[in-house]
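User: What would this chain look like folded?
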Amino acid sequence: MEMINAIGRRKTAVARVYLTKGEGKITVNGRDYREYFPQVHVQHNVTDPFATVGIEAAYNLKVNVKGGGFKGQAEAVRLGISRALVKLDAEFKPALKAKKYLTRDSRAVERKKFGRPKARKRFQFSKR
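Assistant: Here's the prediction, encoded as structure tokens.
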């Protein structure tokens, strides 16, 4: 098995995931994922696809991620990992799909409209 790559996106974050055979090392932008994502609940986003299919320490991951905030980046990494696992073995697809890890969350910030302070907010109305 050579390298399997996949792309995950969320909001403005884009993650490129490279999956290789190994001992379960996950590096994000050249650093360990625990160091890159210090919050424990965000670390679970990264490791959940492996726990779902039951192969925690069988593959190494190299992830390049840019754009967005830490939560959007973690969810982009999760989608990329899930897509790479499905490329690796199609048997993993039902379990990952049941947890909605293969769905691209398309919600993004709405653009600001002219003549308004924000996208939908209006300036205060004054009758007199």
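The radius of gyration is 18 Å. If you want, I can go into more detail on any region.
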